[in-house]
Design goal:
By secondary structure, this protein is an alpha/beta fold. It is built from 10 helices and 17 strands. Strands 3, 4, 5, 8, 9, 16 and 17 form a 7-stranded mixed β-sheet that branches. Strands 12-11-10-13-14-15 form a 6-stranded parallel β-sheet, with helices on both faces. It is globular, with a radius of gyration of 20 Å. Keywords: NADP.
């Protein structure tokens, strides 16, 4: 007899109401896979894009989203070795060129079947809520700043959209690297919180026009490194904020992909524009080591039970959150 589980099921694209918690068949791990009992699943903007529907991307229905998952190994499928039932793990959500929660059913559920190759071991006393925040937010930030951006101690770093998941991660990791962090945000309340996690200075620009303030804060020189994953709404301001010989880093475009570029800034300031695409498994391993040394803790905005997945989505879309939103299956102790 098939065993069941609770999952937030999407049967058609739409708003938060498109997700309904239902009882569905629990997945069975196939060859090379394990079944993970979900302890926590953090939300990202990708979850919203998948729910809304993306041009050119067909998501077979019904579908269960959720990319960033931490939990325990519940079952082991055929052709899997080197793992144990009950072991705490973080899932690297990107494997075989596809994303968990997009190409495969994800972590908005009590259980998820994943490739055993995508498992990263966690300490026995794992803080699942915090670890679930690593891949999409902190993994992306780490690769962008360090692997691609080569951020150095003493450099100035401007973070655009600093109060969201990736932005907060950039502020924390930039401060840890010894950079002088300038965080751009939309309110004084968020600015105050950004200072507590490592921002040296904050620019409050609810209209997105932060360039002039950054220019003045940097002695009319611009910053060594500017991070922009917002896209069309802020790209011009970001170009203006880069110093001569500086780097402009981009890992996404949440406000739109079509951005105006004044090419004069590229040659007159001899700047580099560097793309950074997500993370690699080695980036996550580095972050796990950093967390084990208690060098930083992921910032959590709120934790919702799975039964309130619609409320969690609305909170994320409201753009009032600071840090990550995490969903845990009802009744699970995941702290």
């Amino acid at each position: 007899m098939a065993r069941n589980m609770k999952a937030a099921v999407m049967r058609q694209h739409g708003g938060p109401e498109a997700l309904t918690v239902e009882e569905v068949a629990r997945p069975v791990p196939g060859a090379g896979e394990v079944l993970v009992k979900v302890a926590a699943c953090s939300l990202s903007r990708l979850d919203i894009f998948i729910r809304d529907g993306m041009p050119g991307r067909v998501i077979p229905m019904p579908h269960v989203g959720g990319c960033d998952v931490a939990g325990w190994i519940e079952e082991i499928g055929p052709e899997v070795s080197g793992v144990e039932i009950g072991a705490p793990v973080l899932i690297d959500p990107f494997w075989n060129g596809e994303m968990l929660g997009e190409a495969y059913w994800g972590g908005f559920a009590e259980y998820v079947a994943v490739s055993a190759q995508g498992l990263l071991p966690l300490p026995q006393a794992a803080r699942f809520v915090e670890y679930s925040c690593l891949p999409t937010a902190y993994g992306t930030a780490y690769r962008m700043l360090h692997t691609r951006g080569r951020l150095q101690a003493g450099e100035s770093l401007v973070v655009v959209g600093a109060s969201g998941g990736v932005g907060v991660a950039c502020v924390q990791l930039g401060a840890r690297a010894g950079a002088h962090v300038i965080a751009c945000t939309s309110s004084e309340d968020k600015a105050a919180r950004l200072r507590t996690i490592g921002a040296d200075e904050c620019v409050v620009a609810p209209d997105g026009q932060f360039g002039k303030q950054v220019w003045n804060l940097t002695g009319k020189q611009g910053a060594d490194v500017v991070v922009d994953f917002t896209g069309s709404a802020t790209w011009t301001q970001s170009l203006r904020s880069v110093k001569h010989g500086g780097r402009l880093l981009c890992c996404g475009a949440t406000t739109g992909f079509e951005a105006h570029t004044d090419l004069r800034y590229l040659w007159t300031r001899e700047m580099d524009i560097r793309g950074s695409d997500g993370w690699k498994t080695e980036d996550l391993r580095e972050l796990l080591g950093i967390m084990a040394g208690h060098e930083f803790d992921p910032v959590i905005h709120a934790v919702f039970p799975l039964s309130r997945i619609q409320d969690a989505m609305r909170e994320l879309e409201g753009r009032t959150c600071f840090g990550k939103i995490v969903v845990v299956p009802d009744g699970v102790q995941a702290a």
